[in-house]
Amino acid sequence: MTKRPLGAQISHMLKDRGVDVIFGIPGVHNQEMYRGIEEAGITHILARHEQGAGFMADGYARASGKPGVAYVITGPGLCNIMTPMGQAYSDSVPMLVVSSCLDEVAARKGQLHQMKDQRAAAETVCDWSEEARTAEAAYVLIDRALAEFEMQRPRPKHIQVPIALLQSDAAPARPKDHNRSLISAEHAQTTDLSPILAAARRPVFVFGGGAAQERSAELATTLCGRFGAAAFTTYAGRGVVSPEYPLLFGSYLANPGSVDMLARADVVVAIGTTLAEVDIWRPHLGHACAFYRVDIDPEVLRDGHVADDAILSDSFTFMDTLLSAQPQTSISDWTTDEIAQARARWRSEADADRPGIVPICDALRDCLPKNTMIYSDMTQFAYVAKEVWDMDRPGHWHHPFGFGTLGYATPAAIGGAVARRGQPTLAIIGDYGFHYTMQELGVAVELGLSLPIILWDNGKLKEIEDSMVRAQIAPNAVVARNPDFCKLAEAFGARAVAPKSLTEMQSEVVAAFQADGPTLIYLTPAVSE
Ligand SMILES: Cc1ncc(C[n+]2csc(CCOP(=O)(O)OP(=O)(O)O)c2C)c(N)n1
Ligand SMILES: [Mg+2]
Fold first, then answer.
1. Using a 6 Å cutoff on CB, does residue 380 contact ligand 1?
2. Is the pLDDT of residue 214 over 90?
3. d(Cα 191, Cα 310) in Å, to the nearest integer?
4. Can you give the C-alpha Rg of the chain in angstroms?
5. Does 454 contact ligand 1 (Cβ within 6 A)?
6. Residue 1: per-residue pLDDT
7. Phi, psi angles (nearest 5°) of residue 330
8. In 10 A of CB 326, how many CB atoms?
9. Residue 56 Cα, ligand 2 centroid: separation in angstroms?
10. Which of 377, 399, 437, 463 is the pocket-test mutation for ligand 1 (most atoms within 8 Å of CB)?
11. Percent of the chain scored above 70 by pLDDT?
């Protein structure tokens, strides 16, 4: 048993548990955690700000399904990563943040990186935040976090370790117990909805991000087809149902017109969705019929969307069980016409609300390689795309949904590209949001990531300006002087292009996927005129 300082042992333990990449920033407080990274065979990615490290870990986790791990220092390092932790909390992303902490704070004021209660601060934005006071406690907490990522709704966790403990010699953690089954018995619990769905004339499925696993994709479409069900997806659930499926309403749940369609349903089954404010932008879905919910998280099943029956199950098991039941004859009254008409109406409403973006979405989608993974930011471009852009596979469009923070897309796409080296990744971000984390461009250059970054420059904080106008506030504080974005990208060592037409944009996007580093693709509304 090799004794090493605990900081080094932690990296060795993480490697043993399957962690290959850690995002972070070292400092004198957490440097012991850096002693063992290379020795353990883990790649460390040095972000330019802890917020970048957190978003990279998030993007990595969303792309790989593995936990995103970040190392940060006491105090400011932890504070800086709290926004990504809050984002990962709202969007159910498995993220593990390990930080140092001071050995003692009560009697010694004015120490480097001191804050009043770091652990409690972190706890406000994650599932749990714990301090390890012994090496064994650190190991137990790490294994608990990793087990919970697999068994429960995944959410970020924070473990802090006192500096002196990180420095002190410790025996290694026990090797991973491969025999331990992580399948929780409660996930097998399902109710048979088969006869109810077979008898329904207008069944509707609503699929959320919880159903957006690759293995669920064909299941969901087959399930809808079996019962002649119409389907909605939330933004996070896009791609769960094939865009070829004729009864797909798409991701238009936030369009008020979706209420009328849901009112026609005689059974609604919501799978893996919180039906949160950011999904439906109204308190009630709009149905007036039997309503069933399926979720892995009991808290979701107990919320305000009261169901006739709440089924505690992961979405895959639920769908698989439902499909294994004996098929019964099922007649559906949904017509492809009513669905196509509703979709066409909603698409033109999206275009009218935020003009000029739909044609760019169409052109962009047409030129992307099939399995492109997209990361978007809080920009009007994404708000339009989330509705009009059908995905042909689940889990390939990531957005800062719940917490809704700016600056997500660039670093999250970097994390995603690291997780899927050699496969296409794209970022979409607005001119204002780009400022939040643009320094992470340096990381993409360093790593030689062939990452196209679509920068949508409408010259302002357009969504906020529009909102102020609607509220009859004279628009103010909505224009920031922008730099020459192309020169800026070039200063980082990235490529930069400013296509003048949609066809030019398409060839630049194709070229960007072939490049040996990131490309800033600078677009203004003029590109579609
Ligand atoms: C951290 C954070 N601060 C503030 C906001 C509020 N906010 C949402 S969108 C937006 C403007 C974004 O401007 P831009 O990136 O240019 O996108 P556009 O709306 O112009 O497409 C702001 C300030 C936010 N979402 N996150
Ligand atoms: Mg803007």
1. yes
2. no
3. 9
4. 24
5. no
6. 74
7. -140, 130
8. 6
9. 23
10. 463
11. 97
